[in-house]
Amino acid sequence: MNTITIVLALAAIVVVSIIVIVVTQMREKARIERARKITALGDNYKRCERLLSEIPGQYLTPELKLLLLKRMLDICNDLAGLKSSLPVSQWRESAEQRKILVRENRDEIKQIKIDSVEKSNAAKDLLQNLFKLIESMHKSGRIDAATAKKNLKYVLFLVHKTHADLHVFQARDLIRQNEIRKAIHAYHLASTEMGKSQDNPLAMKAVKSFRIRIKELEAMMAEGGNASPAESGSKLDKQWDDFLHDEEWKKKADYDD
Question: Which keywords does UniProt give here (predicted)?
Fold first, then answer.
């Protein structure tokens, strides 16, 4: 074997070795990237599931639920394409069944009373995560601009309502303690929160209802009596508790200023 042959053979060995190394590295990168995608998708599914189960039921409209379920089903499809070992079939079946319940208006609504700062902040954090999710769905082309805009505005309205809910709870508690002046202040704070959603007719009707309640309490203070303030406000309180889902409240004519 002459020198040229030996050199060529060694060169061939080097080239083959380089090719093997490159192919091995590419496969390893692909494996790592696949594992990363599977982990990210799995985390996203669980995040959607958490939002669906932990956001107070009184805040979630059927449309918001269906958006979450759509994202969950999209994730299942992506995971199926990656041949993940995660329980994708079980996840898909669960999401499909939940979607049927929502569309048939048979989905359970688990209401959570916002009666502490901790609950208000927790609800706000969940709603902010929902806001980011809807934004990402729009950016990725999973929902159109009109759908995104409508639901993003509504979620912002809900963020304001979490604070208003807390102030209303505090106001009612203060009324029971006959701390009328402090209760009036709490209702003012609730009104301010709802006023941040000026483009939402429902929020504006809530603001006007708070004004009525404040005037009632101010009248009681002026009379210097303790005329069962809790009872006098029971109707407006009930409307506030139900107003996200009460069609009569939504259709109610505007109050006078």
Answer: Membrane, Transmembrane, Transmembrane helix
